[in-house]
Fold these 2 entries.
Entry 1:
Amino acid sequence: MEAIKNHTGQVVPLNMSNIDTDQIIPKQFLKRIERTGFGQFLFYNWRFDENGKQRPDFNLNKPKYKDASILITQENFGSGSSREHAPWSLLDYGFKIIIAPSFADIFYNNSFKNGLVPIEIEKNLVNDWLKEAEEGILTLTVDLEKKTIQDEDTGFEINFEMPEYRRQNIINGWDEIALTLKVEDKISKYENSIS
């Protein structure tokens, strides 16, 4: 898993609440057996019409947002099923950070396990940043070591909270396998003691 200590990126706004995992990655695209290649199907039914043509009015299709790596959206992002394909598709598309007032619990935990950083901030600020990103270019710097987010244009900075265990894993690039391997010597010692 990629370690992320801080990240500066352009924001793409998605001003909708209750976006579920079937909207993030529709079920017909879940047949792949690897974790890669899902980005092309991200928000598929919103990005493309019934003929597979891009919808020019959807923000991810606008040239202005083509390099965005931070998604800002509304409450209860990632509701619905427990599929890990949702964070996989967001990561594969190029997103590193998702900012919202709240996340569905399973999506929130799956995101951390896969190296996608979900950050909860209060709704009024989400609304301000959604508007700023719609009207112009919004670039934010997320510092996971300091637990701050800074608006690069105005210098405005806020603090955010995150479970310390999750924060340390993201900063160090530790997934559950890496955490297990950190105690490999103890596991081997135990296995040798019972054989």
Entry 2:
Amino acid sequence: MPAILHLNLHRDPFERIAAGTKRIEYREYTPYWRRRIENREYDVIQFRNGYATKAPVMLVEHRGYRIQGKEREKEFAIRLGRILKIKRWRK
């Protein structure tokens, strides 16, 4: 079973990832995101567009991450690979 990082997105970033124009997803460098990202190995990222029961869902290859910025402006830059599956999404 693949290790999955679950992330929720608003419509615009979800749409840009689905279209292939957004190749990096950013998250703040906070204790919450450090617990979920640092020192963990993920195979795929499951993006969900909202919280509805039948919200669009997309599986994307996880290609690693890097930490960028300085001090209070640090953030995770999560590299996205190819799209493996999209459910309940109209282009």
